[in-house]
Each structure stands twice: as structure tokens, then as C-alpha cells.
Design goal:
The structure holds 2 protein chains of 2 kinds. Chain A is mainly alpha-helical. Chain A is built from 13 helices and 2 strands. By secondary structure, chain B is mainly alpha-helical. Chain B is about 65% helix and about 0% strand. The chains are: A mainly alpha, B mainly alpha. Chains A and B meet through helix 4, helix 5, strand 1, helix 11 and helix 12 of A and helix 1, helix 2, helix 3, helix 4 and helix 5 of B.
Chain lengths: ~325, ~140
Amino acid sequence: MMSLTNVLSGRRALIPLLLLLICVNVPALAATGAPAAASTMPWWAWPLMLFVVCFFLGIVAVPAGVGGGVLFVPIVGGFFPFNLDFVRGGGLMVALASALAASPGLLRLGLASLRLALPLSLLVAISQIIGAMIGLLLPAAIAQTSLGVIILGIVFLMLTAKKADVPGIQKADPLSAALRINGLFHDTAHNKDIEWLVHRTPQALLTFVFIGVLAGMFGLGAGWANVPTLNLLMGVPLKVAAGSSSLILSMTSSAAWVYINQGAILPIIVVPSIIGMMMGAMIGVRLLKVVKASVIRKMVIAMLLFAGVRALLKGLGIWM
Amino acid sequence: MSEQNKYASEEQLRFAKVMGAGVKLGFVMLVVSFALYMTGVLQPLVPVDQVSHYWGLSAAEYAKATGTPTGWAWVKDIAKGDMLNYVGIVVLASASIASSLAILPLFARQGEKAHLIISILLILVLLVSASNILH
């Protein structure tokens, strides 16, 4: 049973973040729309606060099992005065950088599969370009409203999606057999090696096209959708699904390129975010040892719910 | 000697090695260039205290209002503090292209035609998106 101390220590870790978001939100409210009406805060306070917020997001992202992008876009988009173009560009770079940092180690341990990720990455890379181009053409209000709806959908998915640690597929489908998509990993929980196969590859390829469009359009990264698709649809063991999802994110920089080329990546936003998120992730790995991942996950769901409602209401012009 | 272990194939390990090197290089460049930008050692194209006046604009409006180059045009202003940061960003965004290129000879040697073709197509898609010809 989860101890009260663990719950409280997990909540304490999030209190500074919530207070900071409230403080950030006050001047940000005045900053929407006209650039000249930016807040009275000194310019350097924004990248500094961005670094601090991303540091806390990095702490909770690892134990919650979500990528940085899905937290970054709704929270920074909702509470900072940056145009959503720069927030989405930042979200893609944060997601890419986090995935790049994790993927080499996961590949070496067999917790990410290159043969599984390659065909999926090809389709995601193509669909992300389409999504990014659509996203940059969307009017701000429609983008905010759609973002709110998507984030609330992700919350629903996180609350309802089941997990199968080792689905144990007995027969591979012809396509995955031809591509030799299979592998072996060491399950530390049971201290044994587990071989895995996949099925329903054609259906998964189609699903990844849809995921790629959404990821490119909103700069969300796609771990929230990759993992359930790999695990529940294809039958990839959960640990390998999470690792391969990270690998797919790291291999599909196509949307990030579109944002870079369109001038939607501002160093003053992106660099403190990446550094803050990476530093926070290092603490998050340690936090995983003292706080139950399920507690953090519930808090992240609550944060996403709040940010999703905020994005939706901002998009609809109800809560500016 | 073949680099292979029980859990990861030779191409998987090579991919990881090249990606890991790219990530380290990208992060170092990002931190160094950002320090040069923030400390004012290198003068930026858009003064840091002015950026906040424009970051509420869309990307297209920001570029127009500040004269910031789009596409690869930042390269000609690489000596500017803000533009220099794009080097680290580009290195990170290119890490998967370099890693995919590194495994092509292995797939070719193993006769893995399907993965060879998929890898080449992935590299082409990423190069097309990086080239800005879709703009």
C-alpha cells in the first residue's frame, strides 16, 4: 500500500511548480495577442521561469512515463506569453532532445528495437511533415481549441488505457516476419530473458500515420500514443514498447525541421527548456526510487487536465 | 570484430554509438552557444531585451518584424549570438540522419534489402524536410 509519506513527498515536489504557474499566469494574461502589450516583467525572467518550470516537468515526466513534449506544449502554451508557433516548435525540440538522450542506452540494452522502429519511423516522419505544415497554417484560436481537445483526449487515454507487461504473441504476422521484427530483452522483475514477436503490423502502420499527423500539428511528441499502440495493438512487451517509442521519437525529426525552417524555433525559448527538462529528468529517475510512479502519474494527469481545460477555454476566448 | 551482444544486433549498436556521439556534441554546442548569446559575448541579430516584444507574434510575423532569416539563411549570420544556437539545434535534429547513414553498409552486407530500402527512404524524408524545399 502506498505510504502517506510517499504521497506527501510527491505532492510537495509539485507545489513549487503549481505556485510558479500561478505567478507566471498573472502577467501572461496581459500578454496575449499584441506583442507590444507584453508583461511588465523583465525579459530575462521568462527564460528563467521557463527553465524552472521545465526542470519540474522533467522531474515528473520520467516517473509518469510521459515524454516532455506532451507536458510542455499545454503548460507553456497556456501560461507563458509566447505565440503557440514557438511553443509547438519548443515542444518538438524538447521531445526530440529527451528521446535522443535516452535512445542510445535503450538500444544497447535491447529495450528499444531498431527493426521495429524503422518502418514505423518512416511513416511517422512523412506524416509529421504534413501535420507540421497544417499546424503552422492553423489560426491561433483554432490551434489552441484543438490542442485543448487533444490534451483532454490524452487524459482520457491515460486514465483508461490498459497495459500488458508481456503480451506473449505466439505467431507473428507475415509482414513483421518478413521484416524480422522480433527481439530478446532481460526482464529484471522476473530475472529472465524474454523473446518477443509482434502481430497486426499493417494496422499499426496506419495508426502511426495518424499519430504522426497529430504530433507534427501540435508539437506534442507522441509517446502517449506510441506506447499503447505498440503494446496493445502490436503486442510488444511494455518495456520494449516504451523504449521503442522513445527511439521512434528520436528518429523522426522531420516536424522539428519544418518548425526550424519556418523560424518557429526561438533559442531563448528552446535552449532553457531543453536544459531544464534534461536536468529535471535526472532528478526524476532518482524520484522514481522514493515515490510510487502511480502517484506521480495521477498528478501528471491532473496537470494535463488543468492545462487541457485552460487551452480549450483560451482557444474559445472564455479564459484569456 | 563484430560488435554484438545477446540483446542488441550489430546495426542496433552502431546506430546507438553514432546517435550517442551526435547527442553529446549537440548538447555541448547548445550550452556553449547559449552562454555566448546570453552573456553578450557575441552580438545577436535581435537584441535579447527586444525578443520579448515579438515572441507573441506568429513565426512568420516574427521573422518579418525582426528580419530574422528563415530556412538555412541563418548560416550567413552564424557569427551572431542568437543564430549560433541553431548549430546545436541542427546537430540534434541531424543525429538520426547520421545514425541511419551509419547502418546502411551493415544492412547491405547482410542482404537485408527491406531494411536497407526503408533506411534510405527515411534518410531521404528527413533530408527533404531539412532542406526546406517543401516551403
